[in-house]
Design a protein that fits this description.
Length: 426
C-alpha cells in the first residue's frame, strides 16, 4: 500500500517505519522544516532506541520519503494517517487545532476516495468531527471514510511495541475502510478489536487512565508503608502476582509523567465533566500524582535537618523515564522547581537530555556530585545502577542518596556508609 503519515513526531515516524517493515511505501508529511531536514538526512529529531537504524535502512532503500508538499502527498496516497499533536488546553481538554488543520488540507487536495485514519490520541467524537470538517471544506463531494486506530506505544520501547502489539483497535462503520485496515494489519499476530469510532477513541483514554491509576495507587499506598516501615516493593510483588492485577505499573516512585498519561487522564476527566458524569477516581489519581514530588521533598527535608536552604542537591535524570529524551510533565523537573523554592542549589545530569535555564547541568556524573549534600535519582537510567558509589561518596559533602525510583541496592549503599532513603524501601 501507499501510505501517508501526517506528522513526523514520535508516533508518526515510528508508525511509518513499521509500515515500511511490513512492505508498504510510506510518505512522511510535516510542515516543520527542522524535522523534515533531519529525517531527510536519515537522523531522528528525538531519541528512541533502535529507531534510527530502522530509519536509515528504509530511507536508503527508498521505502520512505519525507516532504513538506501537502498537495502531492495527499493526492498520491489513498491511506492517510493523522499523527499530529493534540496538546492539552487550559481546561485540560485536548486541543484539536492541528487535527482540524490536517482535515482541511485533506479536503482541499483530495482527488479520489481516501481512508483517513486518526492515530493521534483524540477525544471521543473526533472521527465525526474530522468527517464534518472535511465535508464542510470540500468544493467537490469526493467520498472518503474516517477510521479511529489509536496507538499504544511506550516511549523507550516504541519499536518493540509497534512490532509486537497487544492488540489493534479499528473504529469504523464502513465495511470498505474496515477491509482495508484488516488487510493492512493482516500480518500482526494479535487480537484485532473492531468497533465504532467512539468506542475506539474511548479505549485509548481508558487504557492510559487505568495505568496512571495503578501508578498513583501504589504511590499513595507507599506513603502508608513508609509510616509502617514496610517495604513497598514486597507489597507490589505480592499484589502483582495476582493474575487479575498483574505486576506492571506497580512500582512506587516519583509519579507518572511524559506526553501521554498526564494529558490523557486530564482529557478524560474533562470529557466526563462535559457529559455530567465526573470521574472522581481519576481526579484523585491526578491529586496523588501532583503531590508525589512534594512528598519526596518532605522526606529529604526530614533527613537533612529540616531545611534545604543552600544545600547542594545533585539530581540524576531529567527525562520522565529511561530510554527517552522526553521531559514533558517529568517528575524530575517538578522536583527541581520545588528544590529551588526551598532555596537549594541544584546540579543536574542526564545521559541524553540537554537542557538550559533550569539548573547547572554537567556532562559527567562525577562533576554533578562534587560537594553535594545529597544525590537524588529521578530517572531509572541503566547507567545509574552500576555507578562506582564508593568513589562518588568521596566527592560528596554529605553521603545522602534519595532514590526516587527504588532502583538501587539499599544494603550495598548502606554498607558503603551512605544514608539511603527510597520510596517506602525499608
Amino acid at each position: 500500500m501507499k501510505i501517508l503519515i501526517v506528522g513526523t513526531g514520535y508516533v508518526g515516524t515510528t508508525t511509518g517505519l513499521i509500515f515500511c517493515e511490513m512492505g508498504h511505501q510510506v510518505t512522511g508529511l510535516d510542515l516543520d522544516d527542522r524535522k523534515i531536514k533531519a529525517l531527510q538526512a536519515g537522523k531522528l529529531h528525538f531519541y528512541e532506541p533502535g529507531l534510527e537504524d530502522l530509519l536509515s535502512k528504509h530511507f536508503t532503500a527508498q521505502n520512505i520519503i519525507f516532504t513538506k508538499n501537502a498537495k502531492s502527498a495527499i493526492e498520491e496516497n489513498d491511506l492517510i494517517f493523522i499523527c499530529v499533536g493534540t496538546p492539552q488546553g487550559e481546561d485540560g481538554s485536548a486541543d484539536l487545532t492541528y487535527v482540524k488543520s490536517v482535515a482541511e488540507s485533506i479536503s482541499i487536495y483530495m482527488n479520489r476516495y481516501k481512508v483517513i485514519v486518526t492515530k493521534s490520541t483524540v477525544p471521543v467524537g473526533t472521527a465525526n468531527l474530522v468527517t464534518k470538517w472535511i465535508k464542510e471544506s470540500q468544493d467537490e463531494q469526493i467520498p472518503f471514510d474516517v477510521v479511529s486506530n489509536p496507538e499504544f506505544l511506550r516511549e523507550g520501547s516504541a519499536l518493540y511495541d509497534a512490532l509486537n502489539p497487544d492488540r489493534i483497535v479499528i473504529g469504523t462503520t464502513s465495511e470498505t475502510a474496515s477491509k482495508l485496515m484488516r488487510e493492512l494489519y493482516q500480518n500482526f499476530p494479535c487480537p484485532i478489536i473492531e468497533t465504532n469510532p467512539k468506542a475506539s477513541e474511548m479505549i485509548k483514554y481508558a487504557a492510559n487512565s487505568f495505568l496512571a491509576m495503578k501508578i498513583s495507587y501504589i504511590n499513595e499506598l507507599a506513603r502508608v508503608c513508609d509510616d509502617l516501615k514496610i517495604n513497598v516493593k514486597d507489597v507490589s510483588k505480592g499484589v502483582g502476582l495476582d493474575h487479575r492485577i498483574g505486576p506492571h505499573f506497580l512500582k512506587a516512585g516519583m509519579g507518572y509523567g511524559g506526553s501521554c498519561f498526564p494529558k490523557d487522564v486530564n482529557a478524560l476527566i474533562q470529557i466526563a465533566k462535559e457529559n455530567g458524569k465526573p470521574l472522581s477516581i481519576l481526579e484523585s489519581v491526578v491529586q496523588v500524582n501532583e503531590g508525589q514530588p512534594r512528598y519526596f521533598i518532605d522526606k529529604m527535608k526530614r533527613a537533612l535537618g529540616g531545611d534545604l536552604k543552600n544545600k547542594i542537591i545533585a539530581v540524576l535524570g531529567l527525562a520522565f523515564k529511561a530510554n527517552t529524551d522526553d521531559t514533558r510533565e517529568s517528575p524530575s523537573l517538578n522536583l527541581i522547581d520545588r528544590l529551588k523554592v526551598e532555596q537549594a542549589k541544584v546540579k543536574v545530569h542526564d545521559p541524553i537530555v540537554k537542557m538550559t535555564g533550569r539548573s547547572d547541568q554537567f556532562p559527567v556524573i562525577e562533576e554533578t556530585v562534587v560537594d553535594a549534600d545529597a544525590l537524588v535519582i529521578c530517572t531509572d537510567w541503566d547507567e545509574y545502577k552500576n555507578l562506582d558509589w564508593e568513589s562518588l561518596k568521596l566527592l560528596m559533602k554529605q553521603p545522602y542518596i534519595f532514590d526516587g525510583r527504588n532502583m538501587l541496592d539499599k544494603g550495598i549503599l548502606e554498607s558503603l556508609g551512605f544514608h539511603y532513603v527510597g520510596v517506602a524501601n525499608h
